[in-house]
Design goal:
This protein is an alpha+beta fold and about 160 residues long. The chain has a single domain, classed as Endonuclease I-creI (Roll), CATH 3.10.28. Helices cover about 50% and strands about 20% of the residues. The chain has 8 helices and 4 strands. Strands 1-2-4-3 form a 4-stranded antiparallel β-sheet. α4 packs across α5 and α5 runs antiparallel to α6. About 25% of the residues are buried.
Length: about 160
């Protein structure tokens, strides 16, 4: 029981190291006809773990003061943070407690995208294009469907 009590007192540097290895800052851009430009920008932060380590996800959630712990897939769970107010808490945490791996660059891009969204840039075609290009440089450099959509490809080829 003593070891479990010890684990409840995770320090911020432990969480930073854990997120460096297991965390993900992600920005999806989904087709959403109801939105003014027809696309929705959906930023999120998440950490996925096997169900045996569910306690760690709850401790991360408690430390950040936000997020939901839910099933990710089969026997994996995740703590996921969405919503601008909660994402601001995550950004403040990682601005104060710096990531050490290449994930830091993803985080910095993520923080810039959040800032652009707070300034309503994602509601303009120009801003959405910039966000999509920035998002495509994060993680495994997956291109958002937005960048590959017929509307966007047509506009890119016309603007060259």
């Amino acid at each position: 029981m003593g070891a479990d009590n010890q684990q409840e007192r995770l320090n911020t540097q432990w969480i930073v190291g854990f997120v460096d290895g297991e965390g993900c800052f992600h920005v999806a851009i989904n087709k959403m006809p109801k939105m003014s430009l027809g696309w929705q920008v959906l930023p999120e932060f998440r950490v996925v773990q096997h169900k045996r380590d569910l306690g760690v996800l709850h401790r991360i959630q408690n430390t950040l003061g936000c997020g939901k712990v839910t099933i990710n897939h089969e026997d994996r769970f995740e703590v996921r943070v969405r919503g601008m107010q909660d994402l601001r808490k995550v950004i403040a945490f990682f601005e104060k407690n710096k990531l050490q791996t290449t994930k830091r660059k993803n985080f910095e891009t993520f923080a810039k995208i959040i800032s652009m969204m707070e300034n309503k840039k994602h509601l303009t075609k120009e801003g959405l294009d910039k966000i999509a290009r920035m998002a495509s440089t994060m993680n495994q450099k997956v291109k958002p469907a937005y960048l590959e959509s017929p509307e966007t490809l047509r506009q890119i080829s016309h603007s060259r």
